[in-house]
Write a structure and sequence with these properties.
single chain; 498 residues; mainly alpha; two-stranded antiparallel sheet; 20 helices; 2 strands; globular
Length: 498
């Protein structure tokens, strides 16, 4: 962040002015670099299969280098860059495969490492601040990171060093990123401003592309759907046959990000909010992810129970207006058939195939999971439902501190009293409720969805610390003002006496 965005200094802490928004595309230097990187990537793509093969290596290396530069020189842009990489990297990978003309196995698709390498850069924050863990209150993140390294060591002991090291990228960067956001709580207003802007544009672009994907079924998405084996879960490779996953890898992560974006939009003020909300909500419906629909309703309920009456009315009216647009759309073809059929399954889950399969998986694996004291190491097993995955991968030894850190941080966010008019914090609470509910359906504490869980945990805890500091400064100002007034009054009384 440039020095121009810092407005005032309080004691030893430099605090950004929350009332002064950062101009778009400023400062120019990093944006020129990002534009040049995007231009080079586009040119290589246009060169065909040979260029796409080069992108597979150049893109992750470039993302790592740019992330390193942004982290130290423009930290707010660094955060936005990480979010955007999680938004678009899977889409870019599919375009590469299409240009090459063949499906690339995930183990050979290095481009998929880009967002994880970028977020791994913020381990520098952990390195610098680890000795001050008790002082800065970052224990929830530190014990979760320690549990991940425990699972990593167990995986190596079981003789899987390469696969376990790759799997470490699926577990560690997300917690490190949340830690980074929390420790840098002084920048909280800038972080929140950046997240709103990123998700507002992100949901608009991903939502519009998701609708296009459903109607057109582009060749690159059809190639991915068939070759990845997702036909059984993500629909058929034809127009109006796909379950929307937009620019992401599958419909589950996309639904998680779409719900997060829709909740954030409730706290945004821009002309983009209406088109982004409509596109995001329609594409969420077309993803046919029931967990996304349910968690969105849960998040909205959390908002409506924790705000002032005026804010509740504004949000309620926004939801009503969006419903007036969406309901006619989803009750007519080509959208009605797939959405209505999926909605009907929510009233009869006992007859739903995916629900039965998930219940069967839990029944089979439950005894195995609860008997894991040491665990088998990260990456040893994956399935629907975080509790099973955590116990088998980390064992009770690793799962207890990992879950304990998550629960402790969440309790701080949910139990700390804040101003009822604080819409941003209410949105973070709603997102945390949504993310915790998603844990019941899939292992969303890792991968792209893990960034939502741990990232917004860091945002919630950082806001609490930021608000506590601002309140403390206000008390100090009142105290200093009272002392000054008393001193002036005493001086005046002495002058009058003399």
């Amino acid at each position: 962040m440039s020095a121009q965005s810092i407005d005032f200094v309080s004691n030893d802490l430099t605090i950004p002015n929350p009332d002064k928004p950062t101009p778009l595309f400023q400062p120019a230097e990093p944006w020129i670099l990002l534009g040049f990187f995007g231009f080079v990537t586009l040119i290589l793509m246009l060169l065909g299969g040979a260029g796409a093969k080069i992108v597979n290596f150049v893109f992750p290396a470039g993302c790592l280098g740019i992330s390193y530069y942004l982290y130290f020189r423009h930290p707010i842009l660094y955060n936005g860059f990480v979010w955007w990489l999680f938004f678009i990297t899977p889409f870019l990978r599919r375009i590469c495969d299409w240009r090459i003309g063949a499906f690339t196995q995930p183990s050979s698709s290095y481009i998929l490492l880009s967002p994880f390498l970028a977020s791994l850069v913020c381990l520098h924050t952990l390195y610098v601040n680890l000795p001050k863990t008790r002082e800065n209150g970052s224990t929830p993140f530190v014990i979760a990171i320690a549990a991940i390294f425990y699972g990593y060591l167990i995986g190596i002991i079981y003789g899987k060093p390469v696969s376990t090291t790759v799997e470490l990228l699926d577990w560690l960067p997300q917690v490190a990123f949340g830690y980074h956001l929390y420790v840098n709580w002084r920048r909280y207003p800038l972080h929140m401003q950046n997240i709103k802007r990123v998700f507002m544009w992100g949901i608009l672009i991903m939502g519009v592309y998701g609708i296009y994907q459903y109607i057109v079924a582009p060749e690159w998405d059809r190639l991915w759907l068939v070759e990845s084996g997702m036909i059984s879960s993500a629909g058929s490779p034809y127009p109006f046959g796909m379950r929307v996953w937009s620019t992401m890898n599958s419909q589950g992560p996309y639904a998680d990000y779409a719900v997060t974006g829709l909740l954030i939009l409730l706290a945004c003020q821009s002309w983009l909010v209406i088109p982004a909300s409509i596109a995001g909500a329609l594409s969420l419906l077309l993803s046919l992810v029931r967990a996304g629909w349910i968690t969105l309703m849960a998040g909205v309920l959390v908002l409506l129970t924790s705000l002032s009456a005026k804010q509740k009315f504004r949000i309620f009216m926004g939801i009503v207006c969006m419903a007036l647009v969406l309901i006619p759309l989803v009750t007519m073809e080509p959208f009605a058939k797939s959405v209505t059929a999926r909605l009907e399954t929510m009233t009869n889950l006992q007859e739903d195939g995916s629900a039965k399969a998930r219940q069967g998986t839990y029944a089979i694996l439950f005894d195995t999971a609860v008997s894991q004291i040491v665990g088998k190491g990260i990456g040893s097993f994956d399935t629907d439902g975080a509790p099973i995955v955590l116990l088998i991968n980390l064992g009770w030894i690793g799962a207890i501190p990992y879950v304990g850190g998550l629960i402790f941080g969440s309790l701080l966010i949910f139990t700390t009293k804040t101003d009822a008019r604080n819409l941003d914090f209410a949105v973070v609470r709603a997102i945390m409720v949504k993310s915790l509910l998603f844990l019941l359906t899939s292992s969303t504490m890792k991968g792209a969805q893990g960034l939502l869980l741990w990232g917004f945990l860091g945002m919630g805890m950082s806001q609490l610390k930021y608000q506590a500091y601002i309140k403390q400064q206000n008390y100090l100002k009142i105290y200093e003002s009272a002392i000054l007034e008393a001193s002036q009054a005493s001086h005046q009384s002495k002058e009058q006496a003399s």
